[in-house]
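If you are new to this repository, start here. Below is one unmodified record pulled from the training split, so you can see the exact layout before writing a loader.
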Amino acid sequence: MEENLDEKNPQEVVNECVEEQTQTVESEATQESTPEETTSDADNLALQEEKYAKLQDDYLRLRAEFDNFRKRTLKEKSELIKSAGESVLLNILPLVDDFERAQKALENVSDVESMKEGIDLIYEKFISFLAQNGVKAIETEGKDFDLDFHEAITTIPAPSEDLKGKVIDCTQKGYVMNDKVIRFAKVVVGQ
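And here is the target side for that same chain:
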C-alpha cells in the first residue's frame, strides 16, 4: 500500500482507508449478529412448530367433533324413522278396536242393515284418518290414462270413441300421500 501512496492523491488514500475500516466494522458486526440471528431463527422455528402443533390439534379436535356430530345425526335420523310410524300406528289402533267390535257383533247379528251402517261408519272413520295423514285416493273412473298415477294392467276395445285412451275400470285403487304416489292405481284402459 505504501508503494501506491506516492502515486495516489491523499484524498483517494483516505477514501480507501475509510472503506477498509467500514468493511472491517461490517464484518465484525456480521460475526457478532450471526449468533443472535441463529438464536432468532431457532426462536422462529420454535414458534412455527408451536403454531403448527396448535393448528394440528385444532384440526384433529374439529374433525372428531364433526365425526361425533355426523354419528349423532345418523342415530337421531334412524330413531326418527323407527318412531315415525309409531304415531300413525297409535292412531290406527282405535280403528282396529272398531273392527273387533264389528266382528263380535256379526256373531249375534239379527239386523243386517245396522251392521252395514256400522261397517260404513268404520270405513268413513278410516278414510278420514287417511285424509288427516295426507293420503288421498287417485281418481280413475272416466279419467285420461296418466302414467304418473295409473298402471295399465290391460287394454280393451273402447265401447265408444270418447272413451279411447281413458280409464274404463279400476281393479285396485291407487293412493297419493302429500302429492307423491305411494301406490299406482291398477286400471283397464280403453283402446
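Two things worth knowing about this chain: Confidence is low (pLDDT under 50) at residues 1-5. The longest helix spans residues 10-107.
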